[in-house]
Amino acid sequence: MDRVGIPHMTPDEFRKRGRQVIDWIAAYMERVEDYPVLSQVEPGDVRAALAEHPPATGQDFDLVMADLDGVVMPGITHWQSPGFHAFFNANASGPAILGDLVSSGLGVQGMLWATSPACTELETHVMDWLAEMLDLPETFSSSGPGGGVIQDSASSATLTAVIAAREKATGGTTNHTGNLGNLIAYTSAEAHSSIEKAIRVAGIGADNLRSIEVDEAFAMRPAALEEAIRKDLAAGRRPFFVCATVGTTSSTAIDPVRDIGEICRRYGLWLHVDAALAGTAALLPGMRWIHDGLELSDSYVFNPHKWMLTNFDCSAFFVADRAALISALSVLPEYLRNKASASGTVIDYRDWQIPLGRRFRALKLWFVIRHYGVEGLQAFVEEHLRLTRLFASWVENADNFELAAPAPVNLVCFRHPGGDAVNRRILDNLNASGDVYLSHTRLDGKLTLRLAIGQTHTAERHVRRAWELIQAAATA
Amino acid sequence: MDRVGIPHMTPDEFRKRGRQVIDWIAAYMERVEDYPVLSQVEPGDVRAALAEHPPATGQDFDLVMADLDGVVMPGITHWQSPGFHAFFNANASGPAILGDLVSSGLGVQGMLWATSPACTELETHVMDWLAEMLDLPETFSSSGPGGGVIQDSASSATLTAVIAAREKATGGTTNHTGNLGNLIAYTSAEAHSSIEKAIRVAGIGADNLRSIEVDEAFAMRPAALEEAIRKDLAAGRRPFFVCATVGTTSSTAIDPVRDIGEICRRYGLWLHVDAALAGTAALLPGMRWIHDGLELSDSYVFNPHKWMLTNFDCSAFFVADRAALISALSVLPEYLRNKASASGTVIDYRDWQIPLGRRFRALKLWFVIRHYGVEGLQAFVEEHLRLTRLFASWVENADNFELAAPAPVNLVCFRHPGGDAVNRRILDNLNASGDVYLSHTRLDGKLTLRLAIGQTHTAERHVRRAWELIQAAATA
Asked: CB–CB of A14 and B94 under 8 A?
């Protein structure tokens, strides 16, 4: 302590308490299956157990850890449990946690190249690695006019894409004049809610987002897209942006990117591809068909924080033309000017995102890729694909369940033929049991159960157990 | 390992490697002053030392740690050094790092209350604690119609405020129709670049952001604001949003929030107050004058990740009417519907921000507040204010330097009377020395040096040393 009265944690105390927390996490890893996957607390339970006022003086670390166990843990829904099959997985891993810990310890702010060159350069580097690992088009490599950046979420990446597309479509005028009301965006009826949110935020307005119909596999119909674009053009409106989805949230439907991309080229629209969950599957050469036509896209996002063992937040966003992004997002006040930026030889990632500040998130991705190696990550994803096919085959062969959609990646959509009320009851029973956590969607208007297989330690025995529980709930 | 061929880190390996990383950080804390504060690498140096391709198979953890030392560390600008006086500080602390580590270990996703009730409830709780600690107006407490949320940055919080204000001003129509071009926003000529960025992103357009003149202390002139509003109204435009700054980035100027707030009430404008850096000063009763009139504001942001020992990212955003926020940002797809949300008794923070996903960031803030206690945090801030006054007094009494602005918080703006070239040379020499890192701004058109005092371990000896170096550079 440099100053009397300020109870900083000394490096020695940090060593001691750090080990305590590391041990706590290791024990959590060991016993995560003992917890109910879905938290069973009622609204207000957690707050009621917390001290009403902040403490006047500092408290012992053990007291905080005791409350972590006693108050916080009952209120945790265990995303890291192998029984977590809801939404999409957000898997983590030892190396990711430790890479993130190094980032917290360094506490650097990578808004400009100069404010930590390694934060920027390692990020550019691992983004190029990712492009190589997924065999993404050359256009997304930093060696050309494009490149990659880590954002917090696919939502933010999509918003960034919309802003860049808006600016490009209006010849750089929207930044000055604001949106003037006739820009039109397109996405499928099955696209993620973040598309509408981005369109709203950008001042385009949800009325100007066309919801394009899907085929029987819930993928966008290119012919319907083209028809909608023509109709808008005929009415004097300005089509500017299409979001295709590779792996929708409801059912992992794969939009035909090549057909959509050709239409976008024909009419001069920005094509953004949202592969938030499914992109990771392209680690496997046999799965790269999901990206067919991606070289026609202007931007692309997938989330290593979903299925690539890198804990949230780590969303990988690529653009084919970084100039469009930077001209849309750069505002340069005097206090951020510096020689390196002025030289034009460096990347300042602040101009590739909405926020100014940024964490050193590349570290965790770098730790993960080096710890697992490309083959280790491939083996990980391949096993989940196998388990998904296995589970889908059980559903297909069962008398009392049916597949509700194709299962091309790591999600199975299925339902009991008894109707919404029966499926709702099955879901509620499963989730109340604490053994597994599934979520639902609606496909063809019908309530549908979703089982995602992507947690770090989800193995065949967990999937078998889930199926047994589902069968038990169905016959209860 | 559950599966052959997937090299997961076992809990035991995690214990071992976790200790290694904890020890590495503790050693970094001990030797941080030995590094040049501003990284001395040239563009491309870091990338040139990294492996060109990702490894096919997993590598030993020691190899990664060796590259961390050998390749990454030379490219780090040491924000945690006591000699870091550039921009604004982004201080961290042991308890914050460990709270964040717990968050990484749990790996939960707090988008909905149900997806981890503790993530939401602890956040609401510590935000109420913060409101109490800073004596913020009752309007921002979760017990009424308002409340707080943690965002990644003040930039994102300001964008969120703009979106909510836009929606409210247009009676909930912009979400549907898009911005129609006549909304006008106001901020001072000294406001942060994130205001313009938010106005651009929201489709309002920078031409519709009025830059209001400042007084001799660089604070917004309320009379000029009112005049600008009247002029726009007379021209048939729709004034909707004002951003006042409590502690500008250039010089920590404090806009007169009460006067501005009264004008906003009179004309029905949303008042957002950006106190990103300075807000923390209100921990001290003697500094609460900076928030005078805050009860007239609709939203407020300050960053515990700047000056409250909580590592980035942790930006505290408060609104007086959460309904306005939620109606602007909520999009509810089937796959996110759940009983708790439908009951209306819980908060779903996804509707309080742009992204959908969210980390458990409340943990680090909770760890910090409990470890230091309110009095520990007050002592911390008070010492920095004392050091700032001390440094300002040296400048005032020096023959060869002058104060360029008042120093009400923890930043001193000063310059050599010799003109821009001399000040530029002094700055470059200081930063090349590696002993300290200062940044600059422009005030009254003149290049001005900025010395911010807010790092975790910045003590009187560091500030004295900085002054000696500045004097040496000036007389060189």
From this structure: yes
- Which structure tokens are listed for B178? 């898009």
Q: Which residue in B has a C-alpha nearest to residue A448's C-alpha?
A: B335
Interchain CB distance below 8 Å, B76 and A175: no
Encode pLDDT of A367-380 as tens digits.
999 999 999 999 99
- What residues in A contact B118, CB-CB < 8 Å? 39, 41, 46, 71-76
Judge: domain B98-366, CATH 3.40.640.10: yes
Give how far B259 is from chain A: nearest CA, Å: 27
Q: What is the pLDDT of residues A40-70, one digit of tens each?
A: 999 999 999 999 999 999 999 999 999 999 9
Whether B103 has a pLDDT exceeding 90, the answer reads yes
User: Minimal Cα distance from B91: which residue of A?
Assistant: A107
Token pair, residue B394, equals: 């040296």
pTM of the entire predicted model: 0.97
Q: Read off the pLDDT band of B174 (50, 70, 90).
A: confident
Integer Rg of chain A from CA: 24
| Alpha-carbon dihedral sign for residues A285, A290, A293, A298 | negative
A79 to B442: CB separation less than 8 angstroms, yes or no: no
Q: Which CATH fold would you assign to the domain B375-475?
A: Aspartate Aminotransferase, domain 1 (3.90.1150)
Min Cα–Cα distance to chain B from A378, Å: 9
Q: Chain B residue closest to A96 (CA)?
A: B104
Which residues are within 8 A (CB) of A277 and not within 5 positions of it... i.e. 6 or more apart? A88, A247, A249, A252, A302, A303, A306, A307, A409, A410, A411, A454
Question: Can you list the alpha helix ranges (DSSP code H) found in A311-353?
Answer: 322-329, 339-343
Please tell me the CATH superfamily of domain A367-475, with its number: Aspartate Aminotransferase, domain 1 (3.90.1150.10)
CATH class of A108-358: alpha beta
Closest CA of chain A from B386, distance in Å = 12
